[in-house]
Amino acid sequence: LGAEAREILTTVPNVVHVRDDLTATVPKLSLEIDEEQAQQAGVSNAEVAQQLQATLEGAVGGSILESTENLPVRVQISDGDRGNLSQIAALNLQPGQSALRQDNDFRTVSALGEFKIVPQLAQIAHRNEQRVNTVQGFIKAGTLPSTVLADYLTALEEQGFELPPGYTTEIGGEQAESSDATGDLFGSVGLLLLAMMTALVLSLRSFRSTGIVAAVGIGSVGMALFSLWAFGSLLGFMAIVGAMGLIGIAINGSIIVLSAINEDKLASQGDRKAIQEVVMRATRHVVTTTITTMVGFAPLLFSGDPFWYPLAVAIAGGIGGSPFLALYFTPAAYLMMHRSDRRNTHDNNRNHPTHEAVQSAEGLPSMS
Question: Stretch 234-248: mean pLDDT, rounded?
Fold first, then answer.
C-alpha cells in the first residue's frame, strides 16, 4: 500500500522526490571483525565499536565556561577523514585493558576486519501503538504544500486508491501543523470577541447597534471567502488569519456611521432624511479609509508570493466590500431595528394630545 501511494505521489506536479519508510533501502557501512585477529590484538568487538564511535562521532574531552554557560568540548577527527573510507580503515585502535599481549602496539581497523556496504533493513515504525508506514513527498522551492496536497488527493481519487478495512490515513506535514495552529487560533476567539463586544457596547451604548456591527463583521468574512474563491486562492492558515484580522478593520466604517447617527438628534430618532444626510457626510471618511487600506496590501497582491497572497486576498477582498455594508446595510438595519421605537412614539403622541391655550375670535380663551 505504501509503494502504491508512493508511486501515485511521483506523478503529482512540483514533487521532486518521494520516499517511504518500508521500501527505501539505505546503504550502511558494516565492519566484519576477524575474531582471531581481534583476539591477538587484545581487543573485543565492543571495544572496537566504542573506539570507532568515539573517533568518528566524537567524545567529550572537556568543557569551557562562556559567561554563565558550561559548554562541552567534543573531540573528533576532521570531516574530510570521516567521509573517506580509506582514512577510516587506517584508524589506529588501542588494545583493551584485558589484553594478554605484553606490547601496547596499536592495530589499524583494516587489520582487524573488512568493510562492506550492506543494505539497512527497514523497520516498521509505530505511532500510538499502531504500525505506520510514512510516505513523504519533497516539493520544489516556492510551492505551497497545500497546493501539492490537493493535487495528490485528486490523483488518489482518480486512480481509485482505497484502503482495506483496518487501515487509516493521516495527513501530516504542513496541513497537520496548520490544523494545530488554527485550533490554537480559534481557541482564543471567544475571549477576543467578548472583549470586542464589550468595547462596542460601551462605545455605542446600545446592544442593538453592537449587533449591527457584529453582522457587518460576519458579512466581511463572507466577502473574504468569496474573494478567495473568485481569485482561485486556497483557504489555508494564512487566509484564516487574514479573515480574522479583517474583522477589526472592516467594522470601522459601520462604527463611523452608527456614531454619526447617534450624535444627530433627528437621525437617532429614525428620521430617514436625517440618516441619509449623515450617511452622505460619512461616505468620504469610509471610502478614504477603505482605499488607503487596500493600497497598503497592493504589494502583496502583485508580488505573486504564494505564502502571503491568500492573506492579502482575504483582507483586501473583505475590506473592498465593507463600504457597501457600512453605507447601505448599516443604516437600513438601524431603521429596521428602531422601527418599533418610532411606532411607539407615534402612538403615544396620538393618545396623549397636547393641550394649548388658544385665543378665540371673541377674545375668550378656549382649550384645544
Answer: 76
Higher-pLDDT residue of 129 and 368 is: 129
The arithmetic mean of pLDDT across residues 275-303, rounded, is 83
Residue type, 366: S
pLDDT tens digit sequence for 70-115: 899 988 888 877 878 888 888 888 876 655 444 557 788 888 888 8
Exposed/middle/buried for residue 340 (C-beta within 10 Å: 0-12, 13-18, 19+): exposed
Taking alpha carbons only, the member of 174, 146, 180, 15 closest to residue 5 is: 15
Q: What does the alpha-carbon distance between residue 255 and residue 261 come to, in Å, rounded to a whole number? A: 10
Q: CA angle, 191 as apex, 208 and 311 as ends, to 5°? A: 90
Q: Are 268 and 340 in contact (CB under 8 A)?
A: no
Q: 316 pLDDT exceeds 60?
A: yes
Whether 244 contacts 188, CB under 8 Å: no
- The enclosing H or E element of 74 equals strand 69-75
pTM of the model: 0.46
Give CA–CA dist 237/181, Å, rounded.
8
Contact criterion met (CB below 8 Å) for 52 and 41: no
Look up residue 37 and give its amino acid.
Q
Q: Which residue has the cell 501530516?
A: 172
**From the centroid of its chain, how far is CA 125?**
28
Instruction: Return all residues near 52 (Cβ < 8 A) that are at least 6 apart.
Output: 31, 88, 91, 93, 109
Cβ atoms of 63 and 132 within 8 Å: the answer is no
Three-state secondary structure call for residue 332: helix
To 10 degrees, the CA torsion angle through 329, 332, 334, 340? -150
